[in-house]
Amino acid sequence: MERLRHDDPPHTGPHITLARLDAESEQTVPARRFIARSTDGDRTFLAFLPRTDVDPTRWAIEAEGARRLSIPGFLSVGEVGGTADLPWCTAPYVPALPLPAALRAHGGPLPKPAVRALGASLARTLSTAHTLGVTHAGLSPAAVLLTTEGALLGCFGAVRAAAPDGMRRSGLPGLDSGSLAPEQASGGRPRPLGDVYALGAVLAYAVTGHTVPERDELPPFLRELIPACLSRDPERRPQAHQVLTHLESHPETRPVSRPETHPVSHPVSHPEPAARTAAHRATVLDAAAPIPLPAPVIAALARQSAQVLAAEIPAPASLD
């Protein structure tokens, strides 16, 4: 929970803005993210506004798309509103730390058991989404919100909102270059294997503190998986359900599963049987399963919760 800046809006739609979710130094967050409260004081929200340097119309389209989804592990968008120039959306509040804030609270990369559990949770979420024909197109360290109940994936559609297909996206505001698949950076349509590239970058960040690691920096259970996810050739990347299998089955020794060597298409309406099986398993498992977070991260979540509970709604300005 960060203090508001002088140029932060006092309201997000009808709700009163209490604090920022992200530190001022965060430059690769594709939205302005706040903690907000209803004017009657009864409800608290995570509230989102587009950055001032992005197209608000494209941002609003992705916000509405997120509102229509119901995928375990995706942040649940409840309200979308505003004007064409200043759209906004909200999600129910839970104490949550963006992954970069969690690393700061812990004083460095997360422990390996937490990284393994986080990777499995995100891979399960993406496997379900991909089977339903949904490409997240916004995964990055900042998009991952850690809670005591598990990981939630926000920033839906950030790549699509940044620029239309066919336009270069590298270097655009709000996009994390280390998490942006090469084909998306050059203007290609976001597809599921671009999410897998971003997943590899997120796991690298969680375990090393940056998204472009050297192989020797990685623990054994990620030493083959992360480079495979970060392959520049999409067809050489594992699919999300294969990442999940790798992390759940003998993670220290099992070699990473690769796709078939012949070209593989990824239609949104006809998922492969293996992906369908993985998605079925994902529906019976809780995608937001608890992650063994280190004590400093738990303490930071508790502080945020206490600060939100103690936050007072500003008194309305006097008309006298």
Question: What report would you give on this structure?
Answer:
The chain has helices at 56-67, 99-106, 112-131, 158-162, 182-185, 192-208, 225-229, 240-248, 273-284, 295-310, and strands at 11-12, 15-20, 31-37, 44-50, 79-82, 87-92, 97-98, 144-147, 150-153. It has 320 residues and is α+β, with helices and mostly antiparallel strands. The strands form two sheets. It has a six-stranded antiparallel beta sheet, with helices on one face.
How many angstroms separate the termini?
A: 34 Å
What's the order of the H and E elements? EEEEHEEEHHEEHHHHHHH
Largest sheet: 6 strands, antiparallel
Helix content: 25-40%
- Contiguous uncertain segments of 5+ residues: 253-286
**Helical element count?**
10
Cα radius of gyration in angstroms: 19 Å
Provide tags for this entry.
single chain; 320 residues; alpha+beta; six-stranded antiparallel sheet
How are the elements arranged and paired?
Elements (H helix, E strand, L loop, with lengths): L10 E2 L2 E6 L10 E7 L6 E7 L5 H12 L11 E4 L4 E6 L4 E2 H8 L5 H20 L12 E4 L2 E4 L4 H5 L19 H4 L6 H17 L16 H5 L10 H9 L24 H12 L10 H16 L10
Antiparallel strand pairs: 1-2, 2-3, 3-4, 4-6, 5-6, 7-8, 8-9
Helix pairs in contact: 2-10, 3-6, 3-8, 3-9
